Description:
By secondary structure, the protein is α/β, with parallel strands linked by helices.
Amino acid sequence: MKRVLLLGDSIRMGYDTKVKELLKDEYEVVYSGDNGRFAAYTLWQLNQYYKNEGKFDLVHWNNGYWDMNIEAPMKEAIHPLEEYLAVCGRLIRLMKQQGSKIVYATTTPIFEDGESLDNTGTGATINYRNEWVLTYNKAACELMEKENIPVNDLYSLCLKGPKYYKSEDMLHLTEEGYWAIANQTADCIRKTLG
């Protein structure tokens, strides 16, 4: 059975079990119980998975909110755009070196700019603005196009939902939203793995 690895931030943590359920008869779906936070942390997680668990046929990943976050007292993003793209490039190189197919998932849209505590116990405050999301998504999608990597467009999907499927904290999603993402992600994985 082919193996699929799901990595990413708390948004991924909202849909990973659902994707596993949808694909249980087709693929072995593996994911971290830890929040992937920003892209550099996800890079570290990815390396640990390859080191400790070996080959994955496909890696599906999302990062963004943490990278673009400006959390006081900092005055700039954890990873300004150029740094974000550089780390995404390192993720891509590692996946390709390990022979994995790759799917990148865009960051979900923001219905109202604001801030929220991360919901996975990290203690971080995530500030969010849709203009940041648009900027990071555009640049990441250009990189993925250059690298011939399919994109799971979660941004466009969530625009179709009521209040973009946002939960009360206006950062994370409703169950309906996570199921919409899970279904689209499962379809994307099937298509990419053939």
